[in-house]
Structure formats: C-alpha cells, structure tokens
Amino acid sequence: MFSRHATATTLTLLGIGASFTLAPLAQADQAPSRTGAVAASGSGPSVIAHRGASGYAPENTLAAVDLADDMGFDWVENDVQRTRDGQLVVVHDDTLARTTDVEQRFPDRAPWRVRDFTGAEIATLDAGSWFGQKWTHARVPTLRQYLDRVDRNGQKLLLEIKRPELYPGIEKDTLRVLRQEGWLDRSHIRGRLVMQNFSADSVKTVHRLRPDVITGFLGTPPVADLPSYAAFTDQINPAASSVTADYVASVQRLKGAHGARLKVNTWTVNDAATAVRMSEFGVDGIITDRPDVVRDAVD
Ligand code: G3P
Ligand code: CA
Asked: Which is the closest atom of ligand 1 to the Cα of 198?
C-alpha cells in the first residue's frame, strides 16, 4: 500500500485538525488522460472525483477510479448498494437500467432493481458501453474489488451508502467489508476514509457502530440544527445550489464529532465559475465529475 498523490488537503477533508508540509506538486498535461499524473489542489479546496472521474469514464467503475488516479486525484467518491444475495456493489441508481445493459440481458426482469439481482448476475453486465464503446469491458465492481483498487492506487475514499432505507443493516455490512479489506485500520481511519449519507439516521448508525470513522451528512440542515448534527458527524456536505458563504461559516464555526472544525464538501460542481464561487465561499472540498476543470479553476 502506498500513496502516490499525498496532498495537504487530505486531513482537511477528513475533518482532522492537523497541518503538515506540502509535497511539491507535479505539473502535467491538463487533458484528462491516463498518463498525465498531477497532484490535486494545494491550498484551495480538496477536489474529489465524483463516482471516480465520471465525466470521462463510466461512473463508479474501476476504470473511473484509475482515470482519477492517473489525472492526479487521490480522493474518489462512490455509491454502495446491496444485491439480492447480500453482496455489496458500487452503483449509483437503485436500478441497473441506466448504466448497464441489463434490459437487453434480462428483458423480463423489469424494473431491474439492484436488490433483485444476484452478485453473480450483476458481475456479467456491461457497465461501460452506455458511456462509450471503448468502455465495453467495464463491470459493476463489488465493494471489495473497488476497495482493493482504490487501495492499490494509494487513493482515498468518500464512501456513500446509497438509499440505506432499501437495505436494512447495510451500515453493518459495509463496515464488515471495510474491516475485512483492511480499511478500518489506523492509517485508513485517520487519513483515507469518510463515510457519508443522505440519511441522518444512517450516519448516526455508522457513528454508533464505529465511532472512530469520520462521517459526513449529505444535505443542508437548517443552521439552528447544525449543533445536533455535529454530535455525530464531521462534515456537512450540501448541494452547491444551496451553499452560501454564511452557511459555510455557520458550519465551520462548529466542531464535529471528532473535535475538529466541522467541514463542508459541496457537490456536484462541474464548471469553473461555480468552482471559483464555492472556493470563495470557503468550502473545504468540491465533489466533481470533472476534477481537472475544478482543479484548474481553484488552484
Ligand atoms: O457526494 C455527493 C453526491 O454524490 C451526492 O449525490 O446522487 O451523486 O450520489 P449523488
Ligand atoms: Ca454519491
């Protein structure tokens, strides 16, 4: 295990109060490619590749993780759901229709819900052709495969449990896989993992089961409610359309569940003007399908 793209923003993103010296940032071609390795942003907000580098490769696939790595981005975001036979897989929608060839492969299985298919069935689907013919071989990864690849790349993971209300107990299942795959050891907990969610109850469950894991709440709670969120989470991660400078300041003046300043990572920002505005608002991180565009805008 190694980290090729250590950035000063890692601990900031995690919500851990610490400072250290920046490694020199390599310069490279700005075009998204597998050859131009550059580091993510320095003093500006962290840049987090949403579903991997999903503007340039099929979302939530190993190819999108690898592309983010080769573009120089160490933080990737993903979405985790559960199959009929209890496997955890990385996919965003609660059906497989948009991002795989499931409708052609299993025409009589509408509405093609993730939870109605076995892991073995999902493993046979083409999860790349919808994005472009060169991605035909992409698959829906299991969480284990995904963690292995992120780890091998020396990257860090903003893991979202998607639609937890559909999958009772998925918090425990996810933590079990993380532990079995070595992601709950000290180095991962301290520097390479954040678990986020749109459900406050689910974030609370993760915090109760593993109080040492850094967590994030996806949404924009009213300012008056922020102190109650700070009891169980380290990050408030709102949609960019809902963010104001005052809101960012209101979050950041509180301490999160681990005693560090509560952080703000906003989503999903794919254009330079919005990235600059978010940066000026003082957000800690920007989640984006086009990490190169955001990096260039905020650096
Ligand atoms: O990480 C934030 C973002 O992923 C939340 O929205 O729908 O893309 O999972 P969504
Ligand atoms: Ca997500």
From this structure: 5
